[in-house]
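User: hey, got a sec? need Cation transporter folded
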Amino acid sequence: MGAGHGHGAAGHAGGRHRWRLAVTFVLVFAFFLVELVFGLMSNSLALISDAGHMSADVVALGAALVATRIATRLDTTGRKTYGSYRAEVFASGFTVLIMLGVAAYVVIEAISRIGDAPEVATGTMLVVGALGLVVNIVSMLLLREGSRESLNVKGAYYEVVADAAGSVGVIAAGILVAVSGQPIWDTLVAVAIGIFVAVRAVVLGRQVLAVLGQQVPEGIVVDEVVETLEALPGVAGVHDLHLWTLTSGMNVATAHLVVEKGSDGQLVLTKAQGVLATTYGIEHATLQTELAPTQQCEEVSW
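Assistant: Yep! Here you go:
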């Protein structure tokens, strides 16, 4: 029997985009302070709710920065055989909780204002909303590329997208209140922002749970992987195949390959590693070859 390993050399996806997270963090933190101050001054729930979401961004981006630093740090304990790559997944989960908390606060505050909507300063809403939209567009452009590779960066990107929608909502609320003279529009837009944030949190949360639950990576079908491996010369069968995601851009596989008599086991390993890497993007595969199913494999029930 032999064991084969395929190792990714491209590096950690979140770590490659850490500078984008850092720049976005500075922009968002600065605007959060501006929006909170003017939201309180103008008595606008839409501005305050968006500032609350921005505060969630500040925490989430800070957590993402810490997570990417931890994830790329070399293990000195000898106990983390997979490194600390899962840190970014936990940071994304933390982001989900923050987003849900902000959404709940906005909805509860909006309900408390029903029938007693205070006057709001629409001029301040429009100016701050427009400034926020500019900040969020710049942040989106910074994070868009990294969001395709890293779940951690994707969480931050979703936050910024939600913020951009929030800024548009603030502008719309300012216009509606100014035209109609009805402060209720400020409350209604705030609720819409809260619902939008909650929906984005659920989407990201499902992705986080899929990784933590060690589900098969998105876009990969187990039966197809088995068929591909069994089609290789010298492979008589495949069993005990497991596929999961360690962290963004790092899919992992383990499997037992039953090798035909007379076949070169090492050559089979090399070909199997190659097809997993090129066809399915699985660069780390731990493969074991055997001439026939062992008694141990037959006895294991999971």
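Quick note: The radius of gyration is 25 Å. Let me know if you need anything else on Cation transporter.
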